[in-house]
Amino acid sequence: MILMNDFKAEPLPIREAMQAAAARVFESGWYVLGRELEAFEREWATVCGVDHAVGVGNGMDAIEIALRALDIGPGDEVITTPMTAFATVLAILRAGATPVLADIDPDTALLSMDSAERCLTPQTRAVVLVHLYGQVRNMPDWVDWCAQRGIALVEDCAQAHLAAQNGTTAGAFGAAGAYSFYPTKNLGAIGDGGMLVTREQALAKRAATLRNYGQSVRYHHPELGLNSRLDEIQAAILSARLQWLAEFTQRRREIATAYRMGINHPEVRLLTAPEAESAHVYHLFVVCCEARDALQAHLQAHGVQTLIHYPIPVHQQPPCLDMRRDPHGLGHSEYHAARCLSLPCHPQMSDADTAAVIAAVNDFSPG
Ligand SMILES: Cc1ncc(COP(=O)(O)O)c(C=O)c1O
Q: How far is 239 from 227, CA to CA, in rounded Å?
């Protein structure tokens, strides 16, 4: 079976580097908020081209903390997409703000600026822009759009490690970027992990306070925060795994290129290719098909695992049925959710695996 992720197939040197990193932490006797985290925060800030990075417990908390550090909360509206991990919207709710859902662009599945425009009100304070599937697009336009309206741009970079447009990396465009290091992400820990990146020192300081109960200095709590810290062991392991990230990203791009060249089924539609190679890191390679469920069953029968990101848009989840949204509706998100399918696209896939996926897709007959 060609899997969506295959950690056991990773090269032995990665396993050894992770074991060495973990051993270092055991021997240090220091497990939370120590030197490993400080080192990895510096490394990840450098990767993102920003001055500050604050390790947190997971990607969802990174979004919540970013919003709270920007003083966004009750009474404030935050525009985002319903075609995302539920965590994006849950983070906005947990910050106490009101999510407002804008529709997607059907060619990329990314937030539509026209739809976002229709969602604006005097209460709008931020856009949480999700770099879905690993793509960064139209970032100069989004930066200008937000600046002209006096609202904050928060980037959900959970799927977009190393994605860059015009030399700027995901997380460095807006006021803050929120990363997840969940194991399946392009850079993944061996458990939960996340990071907030920002160019603004004051915001980083506030985020560091918020992740640690709202504690400014030991036993002083100027505000109410979370317990959301990136453990030393995860930080050490992420540092070790970071050495492979560029190579693995390149491999994902090679697989995506092979898919774009090889998949030619008339009923399988690909999303628009990025303008520049750097702008897509292919966390997921997504195709669309009217007979999506039949295609998925066909691929499964031919030894290809697939997943759906996402089968139910956020506004159709039971707690979100009344959530505010574009007055024109969220038709493109609903259309996409019913047709999208994620093919395996991970760095351990061989050329033969990639060819087998292409052959299986092209061989599909909807019946
Ligand atoms: C787009 C997006 N945002 C946010 C998250 C939340 O990250 P985490 O699972 O680390 O909380 C994820 C991960 O599932 C994601 O894919």
A: 22
